[in-house]
């Protein structure tokens, strides 16, 4: 205690030392805040609208960002693979069959499109799971397609209860085709989407 009483609090050396410590603490806080903002911006950019949905579901930005980071870690541990040429061709033929059924049986075609997308996910190495898990997994590499996938799923559920209109079923088919093309590694098939429309 005696050494504290010997400090000259008015000396320039002491004042400069205090100012330096305060500036260093402020700089450290600024760096931490900046890094957090960068992390948030990176996640928001990577996940798009799925970021906002995660924040809404988690109830806080921090919890949502932890959940999104967990998604990324989960996908890193999966063995996601490209399809062979034969597999790609088989899936394309299956899609054409499903799409051709749309005119006569739109509800059944939408259900088959959902099943085909799920089958394609499994073939690529995504684990079998419920819709929310599949959407979360897809969001890591195809974030722009998650909202359309959610829309298509809602319509498919409504179709199962015979509540979806033909126009909604058409929308679901278009959304499933967009996701299908992305998972298949194909370029968007605008002409094929127009055939359904």
Notes on the structure:
It is a single chain. This protein has about 200 residues and is mostly helical. The chain has helices at about 1-5, 10-45, 50-60, 60-75, 85-100, 105-125, 130-140, 145-160, 165-185, 190-195. The chain contains 10 helices and no strands. It is elongated and about 95 Å long. The N and C termini lie far apart (about 85 Å).
Descriptive key words:
single chain, 197 residues, mainly alpha, 2 domains, 10 helices, 79% helix, disordered C terminus
What's the helix-strand series? HHHHHHHHHH
Low-confidence stretches: 187-197
Tally the helices: what do you get?
10
Helix content: over 70%
* Integer tally of domains: 2
Task: Describe the protein's topology.
Layout (H helix, E strand, L loop, with lengths): L1 H4 L6 H36 L1 H10 L2 H17 L7 H17 L4 H19 L6 H11 L4 H15 L5 H19 L5 H7 L1
Helix pairs in contact: 2-3, 3-4, 4-7, 5-6, 6-8, 6-9, 7-8, 8-9
